[in-house]
């Protein structure tokens, strides 16, 4: 089946795969074509983030579908000391 992956930068990557392929295998293809490591991106389909260990058909992806590739947001930060200063 053909899958289209739309990146945040407006480009589209065409992937040829099987419906029984895992989402994780798509991450490897995207990495080799875009240079973005799997840990940096998430794939979204129908408003839902796709889990790497599930197969495409489990999400109803049967071909000629478009997935969105978005950057993974990294959260958290080190305490700055302001909390201690102001007893927050």
TrEMBL record:
<feature type="domain" description="Ubiquitin-like">
    <location>
        <begin position="1"/>
        <end position="76"/>
    </location>
</feature>
<dbReference type="InterPro" id="IPR050158">
    <property type="entry name" value="Ubiquitin_ubiquitin-like"/>
</dbReference>
<dbReference type="InterPro" id="IPR000626">
    <property type="entry name" value="Ubiquitin-like_dom"/>
</dbReference>
<protein>
    <submittedName>
        <fullName>Ubiquitin-related domain-containing protein</fullName>
    </submittedName>
</protein>
<dbReference type="InterPro" id="IPR029071">
    <property type="entry name" value="Ubiquitin-like_domsf"/>
</dbReference>
<dbReference type="Pfam" id="PF00240">
    <property type="entry name" value="ubiquitin"/>
</dbReference>
<dbReference type="InterPro" id="IPR019956">
    <property type="entry name" value="Ubiquitin_dom"/>
</dbReference>
